[in-house]
Design goal:
mainly beta; Immunoglobulin-like; seven-stranded mixed β-sheet; RAB6A-GEF complex partner protein 2; Rgp1; six-stranded mixed β-sheet; 2 domains; 21 strands
Length: 390
């Protein structure tokens, strides 16, 4: 018996376009019987992405988004039930499948011997991100197939998370960046080029650190309700969305307000099971609610969960993010609180028993971007390793 262990060397989170590395260790335990060498026929590895949909609402297009291996390898797979198929046993449809890489053929190991092989693969940049929505799901795995002669194939599957950062190849993003990297004057030659991860971190820092506050006047049919200020329009996973609400110039009394961080999952028209069905599904994540009568200023803080998926678009689904506001306003003026002329006296304000109210709903689109994959790995609950005995 030989134990095969697969381990992702850099964790379980990656950006599209990065190279993923998986260390596969084969170990032969100390002999308990004859002590003869153990032999494995072959081992191969692949990356694949499974797409699961709610079949009552979504149809997966058969051709446009499917990335298949070469026709020669596809014919080999279809000709034998014992061939290596990375997505075998998985639910849904395999929409991305890299070329299989053979790790070894005819591996012989003595008792107590250990051998480690590194499998590396570049993740396609046009791959969809990992996503667990209500109608559509994308999931990624590294699958290693190992077989003994005359025995069925054993599969080792290690899941990982993929995030997508759009505009990674656009140089214009760096024009407004403040490059403060210190160069070593004692090193000869040009400075080494940044890796894809370095460029991604720089882009994320540049976009999410821009101090360009935006103000919005919120009004209804009766007049001004409030003024909302958002300090920046783009945020990374794990950040807090901070905004202020000013009621000082309001002509309509606001009794309370709530702000909810929501994502909109919209199925494309070509993939809807029925054209009359609702194409958009809304999911709420974090909420801030406050009573604001007689307040002049208020603020809200909404944390962005680390496990959610930033905005993206594929042939099947489009995901967007927004802030959903609900203001409860009074239809009639609220009686003012009487302040006594003598400071030594006190007064208690009694609010009205019944108030006729209106509800003002407002949605503000925002941008949510990925986080550094190294940080996402530290908060991930996924295991970066898996073991199987062959």
């Amino acid at each position: 018996m030989i134990d095969a262990t697969a381990f992702l060397t850099r964790g379980t989170a990656f950006l599209a376009g990065e190279t993923i590395e998986c260390a596969i260790t084969f170990s032969c335990p100390e002999a308990t019987g004859s002590g003869q060498p153990e032999c494995l026929a072959w081992a191969s590895a692949q990356l694949h992405c499974q797409c699961n949909v709610k079949e009552s609402k979504v149809i997966i297009p058969p051709q446009p988004i499917t990335r298949r291996p070469s026709e020669e390898w596809e014919n080999i797979q279809s000709s034998s039930n014992t061939s290596f198929a990375a997505s075998r046993g998985e639910k849904g449809v395999c929409i991305l499948l890299t070329q299989p890489k053979i790790l070894f053929c005819d591996l012989k190991m003595k008792p107590g011997e250990t051998k480690t092989i590194i499998y590396s693969e570049t993740i396609p940049r046009d791959a969809p991100p990992s996503y667990r929505g209500q109608d559509v799901k994308y999931s990624y795995k590294v699958t290693i197939g190992v077989q003994r002669i005359g025995s069925p194939i054993k599969l080792i599957k290690v899941p990982f998370r993929l995030m997508v950062l759009y505009g990674l190849d656009e140089a214009t993003i760096f024009e407004g960046a403040n490059h403060t990297d210190a160069a070593n004057p004692f090193l000869e030659g040009d400075r080494p080029k940044n890796t894809l991860l370095d460029r991604a971190v720089q882009i994320l820092t540049t976009i999410t650190s821009r101090k360009s506050p935006n103000s919005y006047n919120i009004t209804n049919t009766q007049g001004a309700v409030a003024k909302f200020c958002l300090f920046k329009p783009a945020f990374k996973l794990g950040e807090d969305i901070i905004g202020t609400i000013d009621f000082s110039d309001a002509s309509v009394a606001c009794l309370q307000y709530s702000v909810v961080l929501q994502c909109e999952e919209q199925i494309s028209e070509e993939c809807r099971r029925r054209q009359q069905q609702t194409s958009t599904t809304v999911a709420s994540h974090s909420k801030h609610q406050e009573f604001c009568l007689h307040l002049r200023h208020s603020h809200m803080v909404l944390p962005i969960p680390l496990h959610v998926t930033p905005a993206f678009i594929t042939d099947i689904v489009c995901l967007r993010w927004r802030l959903h506001f609900e203001f409860t306003t009074s239809k009639e003026p609220i009686p003012e609180h009487g302040i006594p002329s003598d400071q030594s006296e006190s007064a208690i304000w009694q609010g009205p028993d019944n108030v006729s109210v209106d509800t003002l709903v407002w949605n503000l689109p925002i941008k949510i971007l990925p986080i550094n994959p190294l940080h996402a790995t530290s908060y991930s609950a996924w295991k970066a390793t898996n073991l199987v005995s062959v």
